[in-house]
Every structure is written in structure tokens, then in C-alpha cells.
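Journal club prep, notes for RB
We'll compare a predicted complex against what the paper describes. Inputs for the calcium ion case:
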Amino acid sequence: MRVLLLLAAVGLCGAQYNANTQPGRTSIVHLFEWRWADIALECERYLAPYGFGGVQVSPPNENVVVTSPNRPWWERYQPISYKLCSRSGNEDEFRDMVTRCNNVGVRIYVDAVVNHMCGSGAGYGTHSTCGSYFNAGNRDFPAVPYSGWDFNDGKCTTGSGEIESYQDIYQIRNCRLSGLLDLAMEKDYVRSKVAEYLNHLIDIGVAGFRIDAAKHMWPGDIKGFLDKLHNLNTKWFSSGARPFIYQEVIDLGGEPVTGSQYYGNGRVTEFKYGAKLGTVIRRWNGEKMSYLKNWGEGWGFAPSDRALVFVDNHDNQRGHGAGGASILTFWDARLYKMAVGFMLAHPYGFTRVMSSFRWPRNFQNGHDVNDWYGPPSNWDGSTKSVPINPDTTCGDDWVCEHRWRQIRNMVVFRNVVDGEPFSNWWDNNSNQVAFGRGSKGFIVFNNDDWQLNEYLQTGLPAGTYCDVISGDKDNNRCTGIQVNVSGDGKAHFQISNSAEDPFIAIHINAKL
Ligand code: QV4
Ligand code: CA
């Protein structure tokens, strides 16, 4: 009996690191600012067929309506209540999305903004996405309810009441992050209100949470509300399954708050990953792809089973948060596809693919003054639905990186090679590299300024393979490059440095 209890306990803890995706589905996609109705459709028509494990959705709770600037994307990071209504839809639409996505094996992960409420300057009234009254000035949020007692004001020691130094662990947790009213998470009442919100979502059927601004809450206070969370809904999850937790903790080193302090609660977003990979793929600071041989923990990242990894996210693709100029995004499409391809082929971490909207970037003195732009929207401020073009791309300024053939096919690649070891590394001591995943997949990159022309050990069984970067396997023919693996596992690769996509990926499900 004791063994069973122990196993149950481990199961309880272990599962917080487990994404609760269906077996063989190994990535999630952040459908940033998408409407619930569109996500439900995308689960059924695209994400399920291509083996995406789940979707990170934008904050579903009521937020302040910001009109200056006009409906910025970041208004959704200023909660007014935990009612499920936002520009993405209402509670019925949210429920419908979760049900339809779960029914096709695609999970929903909610971006939980629970460290704070709206900005101190948000005023008072009913300018909120559900019409709930609030008064930021006296910390009054009757729709939760929260009152002045539930905020950290008395605890913060800085003059401005805001975080002024990231070298002071007390300010980071007890003061306001850019003026956002900071909740007193040590109070059981506040923990209970947060848990009530998250349990409402769990009971609807979500599989886990991104904990926004986790760095700004004490790890023990986060545990305080996590311990109050229900098990997942047994309509779609096994009994006792725990919500997947990944905490947004920006840790590029050099600060007293580190990601490792949060491992006890769940995974942590590994921001070093995208910052470093961007530098390597851009070949900045003398970085080169041959250095990626020990990618992962060897580069000082979190342990693989504690890391949530990504090339870019909704903040740093527009200069918010962290990562800086090296971050690759859809704006740098050719290099971006290489970075995402490398991430999805490499075994390190749990992978999240970004799916963005386009906005009119306008750099002035190195800063994009339009970094606040909200999603494609109608004249009344409502978010536009996502039109799908005949060529399967998205219209109306939705970028849909997750639908780019090179990225979608690498999501499939990751599923096919899941569990296979990192193997058969080769490099030319510069920016031509290759590696395999056991006997199931192999990938080759040419990021040098000359042709790659090599015979390489792939580890794959003999046969003819379709390159899933330049094309697809369509019935029994390749629409792109074909690769012949001989009996000894070797294959000849030629990649021009001026190729549209200077990398080739093959796996056993793309074998003729
Ligand atoms: C302004 C002034 C304040 C003033 C306040 C008065 O700067 O000094 O006190 O007005 O109200 C927006 C504006 C910001 C404004 C604030 C209101 O940009 O100028 O403050 O609202 O207080 C997003 C955006 C922020 C935005 C915020 C709330 O990035 O620009 O602020 O939403 O709308 C750190 C954290 C990390 C964080 C990252 C951005 O460690 O956790 O900064 N990342 C997460 C989210 C991010 C979000 C938040 C946290 C806040 O990924 O999208 O910030 O929820 O690194
Ligand atoms: Ca805080």
C-alpha cells in the first residue's frame, strides 16, 4: 500500500511537468489573440491531423479596455475579473472550444494572469470586456471581489511602488510590475480566488496553465494556489491527472531570481534558449552552428524535463520582455524556419511554436513605436476571425507560422522521433551541421556561405526518403528533394547556401 501511495505521490508531482498531451504529440502552438471559435475550427481542421499536442490561448478572463493606445494586445494582461469574457469570446465559446479540441485530442493551456490586476492608472468605471465595474485607484474589483486588503501596497519599499531593481528579490515580488496592481499572494483569500478561477477552467477541460509573471510571485505563494487545484476533468484525462504548469520566469542569468527556484511547481520558460539560438543562427559574436553539439543543459539551460522552450514568444517578437535583438521571428522568415526546425528536431525541452499576427512595425531610434498593435480587428474593435486561403495559408494579417510547411512538417518530425536519442552528430567546424534521432529521423543544415556536399551517416534504414522541408511525401512520391539512404545508413547531401531553405529533414514516416 505504501508503495502505491508513494507512486501516487510521485505521479501527482511528476505530472505537473507532463503536458498531458495525447501519446505521440510533442508540441504546442501559441495561437496568440485568436478567437475561441477559430481555435475550435483549427483544432479540428489542422492541429489534430498534423499532430499538434495543444494550444496556448490568450488570457480568457475579463480585462480592462484600453483606448489609448487603441486596444493594444497587452490590455489582456490587465485583469478586471476572472469572468470568461474577452476579445476572444465568452464562456460558452470557450467551453465549446475546449470540448471540440479535446474531442480531437488537442489540449488547451490557459495563459493565467494572476500576479496582478490592471494598471494603477486604469481609472475607474466599466471600461472592461465584460462591463464589470472597477476602481483601480482604490483597488476595488467587485466582480472578483478584491479590495485594497488584497494587494501588496504596504509591502513594497520602493518610492514609486513599482519594481525599480531586478537585483532586489523583495521588490520583484512585492512591488508593481510596470504599475500593475500587485496581488497579496500570501493571503489564503487571494490564493483561493485564484484557485477558484483556475479550477473553473480545469473543470471545463483545460490541460494546464502558463503562469504569467511567475517571477513576480514567491515560489511558495504559487505553490499555495497550485495545491488547491483540482485534478483534470476525467471526461478527457485519466483519473488523478494534474494540470501541466509552466511558469514564465525570465532568467538570462545575472539576477538573484532564477528559474531553478520555481522547478518545484512545474516547468519554467527557458528564455536563454531563444536568445542563444538566435545569436547562433544569425552567426553573431562569432557563434557558429558547430557549437550546438552540446545544445541544452550543456549551454547552462534548465534540465530538459523542467524546460518549456521556444524560438520567440509574444513579448520578445516585438521587443517586450527579454531576448533582445537576437530573437528570430517570422519577420526573419528564412533564418526563423531554420531555428524552429532545429528546435523541433533536437530532443531538449518541451517545445512551443509561435503563431502571430502581422503589424505595421515602425522603428524610431531603434524602438518599434507600433509594438502595442492589437490583433487584426473590425471597426468596432472586435477581433477578426482567421480566414484560410486556398493555399492553406491564413489571410487578414494572421501569420500562421504553424501552417508553414517547414514548421508543420517539423512538428510531425518531432512526433515521429519522440523517445529516440540524439545521435550521429556531424559538423564542418563551421555552420554546416547534421544530427539524427536514433533510427527514425535525420536533419542537415547549411548555414555557411558555401555549398554543403557530404556523405553522412544517418542511422536510418536503407530506402528513399522525402525531404519534409522542401516538400511533402504525397502518396508514394516526393514533392520536394529525395534522399537515398544506402544499406550502410549513409546518404549524400548537397545543400546550396542560396537554397530557399538551406536544410533537409527526413524521417521514417516520409520514406517511400
Ligand atoms: C505604465 C507605466 C507605469 C505606470 C503605469 C500606470 O510604465 O510606470 O505605473 O503605466 O498604469 C502596459 C504598458 C505600460 C503600462 C502598463 C500599465 O506597456 O507602459 O505602465 O500597461 O501599468 C504586457 C506588456 C506590458 C504591458 C502589460 C500590461 O509587455 O508592456 O504594460 O502587458 O498591459 C518582465 C516580467 C515578465 C513580463 C515582461 C513583459 O518579468 O513577466 O516584463 N512578461 C509577462 C507577459 C507580458 C505582460 C506581463 C507579464 C504583465 O508576457 O505580455 O506585459 O502581465 O520581464
Ligand atoms: Ca507580485
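Talking point for the session: The radius of gyration is 23 Å.
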